[in-house]
Amino acid sequence: MRKSLITLFILFLLVGCQNASGQTNDVIELKLAHNQTLDHPVHLSLTEFGRLVEEKSNGKMKVTLFPNGQLGSEREVIELTQTGAVDFSKVSASALEGFSKDYSIFSLPYVFEDYDTFQKVMNNPKVTETLYQQTRNNGFIGLTYYNAGERNLYTKDREVRNVSDMEGLKVRVQPSQTSVQMIESFGGVPTAMAYGEVYTALQSGVIDAAENNETALVGNNHGEVAKYYMYTGHQIVPDMLIMNAKKFDQLTDEQKSIIKEAAKESTSYHEVVWEKSIKEQTEIAKKEMGVEFVEVDKTSFIQAVEPQHEQFSSHEETADIYQLIQEAIQNE
Ligand code: GCU
User: Residue whose CA is closest, atom 13 of ligand 1?
Assistant: First the structure.
């Protein structure tokens, strides 16, 4: 009885010092959730984001990170961001497809020829502002993106060199209808599941393969069970930093600028740590995990998804974003 009274009193004090915008003693405490490990480059860049926010606000804004998927899968943390239970989350653009159709453009295979093309598109404010603002009605906005490399196929024991080798291969994809369709177009059998379940699914044989950048092999240990990594380069899907829209709107103009600047600067910082990490992790996967890196006949993969491009460019839900991306690619 006494204990519960004391708890109640502490709760009262906590709530009492906190105003509607989560401000405690004039310090705005912000929570950020994501699913990567502590040594993943994305975690390092998000840490830098938090550091910059704190520095630029002279300690008046603080960001606490919840890594390792401790607050749930990407779908779950997007929902937490919508309700405001967390202020920010970092999720793959593919996971956002279920919330806004425009984000599905990133899962359309081979929409970007290479990373330079992707970057050109992401440096176009017309594209980013369209993407970042149009989820307001869903309760969140985009702030920036982080390079998440090219997505490549990796298998437990099948070497794939041509799209015809994909026949019947059970491949895990992100929870994205466009990615499901992609694997079907390649002749494989897609299974959408959360990232945290992939290792066990590979190990137990529920799936034969998955697809991701090189950090999955080392950082998430998938290289222990998957021994072939094929350079299919089928998607370039960025990681997105999103924020609860109401929380953002409650900030002063100065605080908003701090958040935006810190986000932008952390994206530049990320380019450097990303490149370094991919080089290191590829070496570890090769030398310490025995993963074989394989070049494929990319043309056969590109041809297999041509109908998906046609569908995207003509369907009413995706035609506008498809057009916008094409214009950004061609823009000199
Ligand atoms: C990438 C991405 C993650 C995502 C994962 C996945 O690693 O950075 O945000 O969860 O792919 O395949 O689900």
Answer: 195
